[in-house]
Recover the amino acids of this structure.
């Protein structure tokens, strides 16, 4: 019943590790013609893979865990998905009903498991009767497909999995969960559209909500109509192509100061962004008096900074409604930016290049070696910190990065999840040496399933970003940051993967080209100073 309901809801992939408490579900997956399953080497990686699958494709995959250690192992990956508003379906199994929360010492028992996961779940429910599976799964999928996308969980005790039941009548004709786009109220939309029409120097900030609502095309048309430069947040990268004349780059304070650019605007349109600490100088960013915010989450609409115009609704539906007003009024500036804003945009982009410094030739060589539609899944590393705010992205869902939780270990498994979702698209992973050894053993998974994902390891034999902070803020008292690493090329070869060591940007570009054409994963090691 569970697996047939997953099929009806359009779930095509399950990531996880089999064990005593979820074996009945795996047993049914053995026979299934449509739903695939992928065995991983750690449940954390299963959650990251499902997250990468969702971010790259917009589709939903499931994570199937054991209770207790399976759930807690997956917690970090699920927390990242929650923080970055990514839809992941967790099938968390449980001990038999009679032993739940009894502290009897049952195998894999975790008291209050449902409650422990609740802070990082949008929806949670334990299925105590097998007949309820279709209805509960449908409720979970409605939550996943509507409103702010975040993980949901269904907890299924093992004895429930073994029940023999007839299909409930209401389940026989139940349709799959559908997405309902709710536009902001018409009056609020018209007021916002009027403010944009009257703006002399409009600026747009595009966040992850633009991507998840599939609103990038509308946003670009609106920007061109208004002559409004577009900043993106990290989660909104690709909302406007990086080579578009109105694109500014990523608003990240560690890369460059966005305050002059924001100050040059008289109206800011912020779409699907949280205004988090890293883009607002610790929430000290002075916004233009006429700031318009569109967000699907009513709780988020004014959480961090005050807003003049608050539009709660789906980004795509609301932007279309604003565009219709502007079209009716004949407002079209043909992409012409006000001089003051154009100068501020140019300075911001120049500041990003200065921040990239010696990393810039490496970035250009790498980008030149990648097809335009390549999906790039990254971890925190010194190289990526230098270039993330300006690395060219030409469409949504092509840059995957752990912005919210900021966890290490995301880059490799998220890339594998993206490759599973989009097998015909090129996918690469960029990591540091520290991040590689969090989840690098998923090379075994990549080999098992023939996922030809190039993995670029920028190696400085340290937790380099932390070492920089100790140098700059703690008088070079280096502690707990220097690492003993394996030979990454030989390690890759030990798994049966390809391995290369490169020392120049030109060699990197050539190695990536070879790796993308290979029939299995490749690890490319790049020595990288931390100065």
């Amino acid at each position: 019943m569970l697996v047939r309901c997953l099929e009806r809801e359009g779930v095509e992939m399950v990531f996880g590790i089999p064990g005593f408490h979820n074996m009945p579900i795996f047993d049914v997956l053995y026979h299934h013609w449509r739903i695939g399953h992928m065995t991983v080497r750690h449940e954390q990686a299963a959650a990251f893979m499902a997250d990468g699958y969702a971010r790259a494709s917009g589709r939903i995959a499931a994570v199937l865990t054991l209770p207790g250690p399976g759930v807690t192992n997956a917690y970090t990956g699920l927390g990242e998905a929650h923080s970055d508003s990514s839809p992941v379906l967790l099938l968390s199994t449980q001990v038999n009903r009679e032993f739940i929360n009894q502290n009897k010492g049952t195998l894999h028992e975790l008291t209050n498991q449902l409650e422990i996961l609740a802070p990082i779940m949008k929806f949670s429910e334990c299925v105590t009767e097998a007949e309820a599976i279709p209805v509960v799964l449908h409720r979970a999928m409605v939550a996943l497909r509507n409103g702010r996308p975040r993980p949901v969980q269904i907890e299924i005790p093992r004895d429930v999995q073994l029940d023999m039941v007839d299909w409930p009548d209401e389940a026989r004709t139940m349709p799959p969960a559908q997405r309902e786009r709710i536009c902001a109220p018409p009056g609020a939309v018209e007021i916002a559209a009027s403010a944009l029409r009257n703006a002399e120097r409009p600026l747009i900030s595009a966040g992850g909500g633009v991507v998840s609502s599939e609103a990038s095309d509308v946003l670009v048309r609106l920007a061109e109509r208004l002559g409004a430069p577009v900043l993106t947040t990290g989660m909104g990268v690709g909302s406007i192509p990086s080579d578009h004349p109105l694109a500014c780059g990523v608003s990240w304070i560690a890369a460059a100061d966005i305050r002059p650019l924001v100050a040059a605007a008289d109206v800011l349109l912020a779409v699907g962004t949280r205004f988090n600490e890293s883009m607002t100088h610790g929430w000290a960013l002075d916004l233009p008096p006429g700031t318009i915010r569109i967000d699907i989450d009513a709780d988020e609409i004014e959480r961090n900074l005050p807003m003049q115009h608050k539009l709660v609704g789906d980004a795509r539906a609301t932007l279309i409604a604003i565009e219709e007003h502007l079209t009716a009024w004949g407002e079209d500036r043909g992409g012409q930016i006000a001089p003051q804003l154009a100068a501020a945009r140019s300075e911001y982009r120049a500041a990003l290049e200065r921040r990239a410094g010696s990393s810039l030739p490496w970035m250009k060589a790498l980008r030149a070696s990648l097809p335009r539609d390549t999906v790039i899944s990254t971890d925190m590393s010194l190289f990526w910190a230098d270039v993330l705010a300006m690395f060219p992205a030409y469409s949504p869902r092509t840059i995957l990065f752990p912005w919210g939780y900021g966890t290490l270990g995301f880059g490799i498994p998220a890339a594998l999840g993206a490759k599973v979702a989009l097998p015909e698209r090129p996918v690469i992973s960029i990591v540091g040496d520290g991040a590689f050894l969090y989840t690098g053993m998923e090379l075994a998974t990549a080999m098992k399933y023939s996922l030809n994902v190039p993995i670029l390891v920028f190696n400085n034999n340290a937790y380099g970003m932390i070492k920089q902070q100790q140098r700059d803020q703690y008088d070079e008292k280096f502690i707990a940051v220097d690492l003993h690493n394996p030979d990454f090329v030989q390690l890759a070869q030990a798994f049966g993967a390809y391995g290369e060591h490169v020392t120049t940007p030109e060699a990197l570009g050539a190695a990536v080209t070879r790796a993308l054409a290979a029939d299995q994963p490749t690890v490319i090691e790049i020595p990288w100073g931390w100065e």
In short: The CA atoms of residues 148 and 297 lie 6 Å apart. The first helix runs from residue 2 to 8. The chain has three domains: 2-172, 186-337, 356-527.
